[in-house]
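Comment thread on ticket #2218

A.B. wrote:
> Attaching the input chain for the structure job we discussed in standup.
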Amino acid sequence: MHLSTEDLRRLDKQFVWHPFTPMKLWAESDPLVITSAQGMHLIDSDGNRYLDGVSSLWCNVHGHRVPEIDSAIRAQLDKVAHTTMLGLASEPAILLAERLIRIVPAGLAKVFYSDSGATATEVAFKLAAQYWYNVGQPQRNEFVGFAEAYHGDTIGAMSIGRMPGFHKPYFPMLFKAHFAPSPYVYRSETPSDPQAVKQSCLTALERILEEHGPRIAGVCIEPMVQGAGGMIVQPAGFLSGVAALARKHGTLLIADEVAVGFGRTGRMFACEHEGVRPDLMCVAKGITGGYLPLAATFTTQAVFDAFLGEPWEGRTFYHGHTYTGNPLACAAALASLELFEKNKVVENVARNATALAGMLERLRPLPHVGDIRQLGYMVGIELVENKASGRPFDPTRRVGAAVCQGVRKHGVIIRPLGDVVVLMPPPAMGAGDLERIVEAVRAEVAGL
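C.D. wrote:
> Ran it. Output below, let me know if you need it in another format.
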């Protein structure tokens, strides 16, 4: 059955509730309806093509309709689409775990599967708390997070990454956590001195650990870039400084690589930039190349060993999801990892990131561009009303949303974070398509 764009929009507005979407405005708009895709382009119900500048919410890696991934999923469909991992093993999940452990930071030895970034972080928080419980330190049940952090929308994820704009109605539901300042250099007291910002934030973190250390189960950080907080790129040495403080105070380091993992920063995993070895690491989004829901939480052997014992000893990790280690998703992930090697995807990001930085420089002189932050293919362009003072726009004007809406007429799809315009193209994207995206944004921002 083929429905017109008008019919699809009508049915959508009648029945569908969209995530992170002001539904009153949605109901008053004429939304794009995506019906197909090819390579780096999404195609709407009227046949218009758009570059996928947001990687279909930060997860697409190789583009759409990738023959190798399509074939891997079809081949797995001829075997089994899903089987539980509760009490059974699964061939694709086994093969993927072995492959992942070969490429994650040294010291990580075990894989616990789930199905989204939020569940991956939720697993990490529960593992950390139970680890200390199992080793006889049940008082270690509090966590340290960072301002402007985002770890997902489940209760634990919100508790340690509570963003008022997203989560304020749920604050009464959340458990206690401690928050260190994030090195948001542009909005700091010393925007011209990133290292001073770094040191100030590390000093504040150490004060928290000195005061509450015996009760801290773990410190959780988005390595190198805080994504949903506004693409906040951390100064050099901040990540390794956080890792050193966690070690000094004897607590676990949890790396949330959901957004930054799988090549987006120019390394396979962002922790590699500063040689950091976390105790737990969370991934999702790009793990399947952006094809199917899958996530993983990695732990060291030491963490895993604390859960070993007889069933009646109470050491078992009683946590799981129906679609844990789904075979179709694992097959897609295995095919995606093959493409990382075959097409040198990480090298593509590292190489083109320099060219992208040059393209972005053309935006810097524009009167409403306050700051441009970039690491690899992760970019945040912060728009302000007054460039000299950094005064932001009145949020009711929704300037970032207007820019992202405007670039669609140039054949580009992106999404803002408030008045931060985010560019997050698939890591396999080439320089020519990057140029088109940046030029579309430049044209719209110049017209503000």
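A.B. wrote:
> Thanks. Noting for the ticket: DSSP finds 15 helices and 17 strands in the chain.
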